[in-house]
């Protein structure tokens, strides 16, 4: 969960990108890594198998300062999507403060998306996380491929959960997904810790401080 160190004036949060195998979780982090100014992010660590699927996890650290004088540290992780890595996903998800669910837009991937969503819910609950309250967004990736589910059908099905179309390999929808996840994370922090009042970090300050170092494409 969010770590607040008043003495060091540091706030650390963990964001996890979840979803079925090959849905684009690693690609999202790679795009963010490429867009962020090197001064704002650390080295991205990726552990792959021979077939380019994530074996354990990807890790991307981001750090920035706020007008209130706090250093905000974000730790971005992905989980392996393959069914056999269920225990690994549970470990990586432990202590998550927000989750981005990366779905494959192709109709043929509907069952894999549904399985992964249920798996994420079960793992969050077993880690003691309130599934209903944790900040989350859904990205429907691979919109450039044939036979994708229409966006209107997706939004009708997901209702209150914010959904974003994306072609992550081209960087489309990556920042929008990340921005909404940050906004929802701040709102929960504000609700729990009176974040804006106690730490002088407004929602716009929080989100803007992260996204400001993004390079124009």
Indicate the topology.
Blueprint: E1 3-5, E2 10-18, H1 25-35, E3 45-48, E4 54-65, E5 71-78, H2 86-93, E6 98-104, H3 110-126, E7 136-141, H4 151-158, E8 163-165, H5 174-193, H6 195-199, H7 203-211
Parallel strand pairs: 2-5, 2-6, 6-7, 7-8
Antiparallel strand pairs: 1-2, 3-4, 4-5
Task: Write a structural description.
With about 220 residues, this protein is of the alpha/beta class. Helices cover about 35% and strands about 25% of the residues. The protein contains seven helices and eight strands. Strands 1, 2, 3, 4, 5, 6, 7 and 8 form an eight-stranded mixed β-sheet that branches. The protein is globular and about 50 Å long. The model has no long low-confidence stretch (mean pLDDT about 85).
At a glance:
The chain has 217 residues and is an alpha/beta fold. The chain has seven helices and eight strands; from the N terminus they run E-E-H-E-E-E-H-E-H-E-H-E-H-H-H.
List keywords for this structure.
about 220 residues, alpha/beta, Rossmann fold, 7 helices, globular
The CATH homologous superfamily corresponds to P-loop containing nucleotide triphosphate hydrolases
- The figure for the number of domains is 1
Number of β-strand runs: 8
Architecture per CATH nomenclature, i.e. the level-2 architecture: 3-Layer(aba) Sandwich
What is the 3D form?
A: globular
């Amino acid at each position: 969960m969010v770590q607040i160190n008043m003495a060091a004036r540091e706030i650390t949060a963990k964001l996890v990108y979840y979803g079925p195998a090959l849905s684009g979780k690693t690609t999202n982090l790679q795009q963010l890594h490429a867009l962020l100014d090197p001064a704002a992010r650390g080295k991205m660590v990726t552990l792959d198998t021979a077939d380019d699927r994530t074996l354990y996890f990807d890790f991307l650290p981001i750090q920035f300062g706020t007008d209130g004088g706090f250093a905000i540290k974000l730790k971005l992780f992905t989980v392996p999507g393959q069914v056999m890595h269920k225990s690994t996903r549970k470990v990586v998800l432990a202590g998550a403060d927000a989750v981005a669910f990366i779905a494959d837009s192709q109709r043929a991937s509907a069952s894999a998306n549904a399985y992964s969503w249920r798996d994420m819910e079960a793992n969050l609950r077993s880690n003691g996380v309130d599934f209903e309250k944790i900040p989350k967004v859904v990205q429907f990736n691979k919109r450039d491929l044939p036979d994708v589910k229409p966006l209107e059908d997706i939004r009708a099905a997901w209702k209150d959960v914010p959904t974003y179309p994306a072609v992550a390999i081209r960087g489309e929808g990556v920042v929008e997904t990340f921005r909404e996840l940050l906004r929802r994370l701040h709102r929960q922090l504000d609700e729990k810790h009176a974040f804006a009042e106690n730490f002088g970090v407004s929602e716009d300050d929080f989100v803007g401080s992260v996204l400001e170092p993004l390079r124009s494409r």
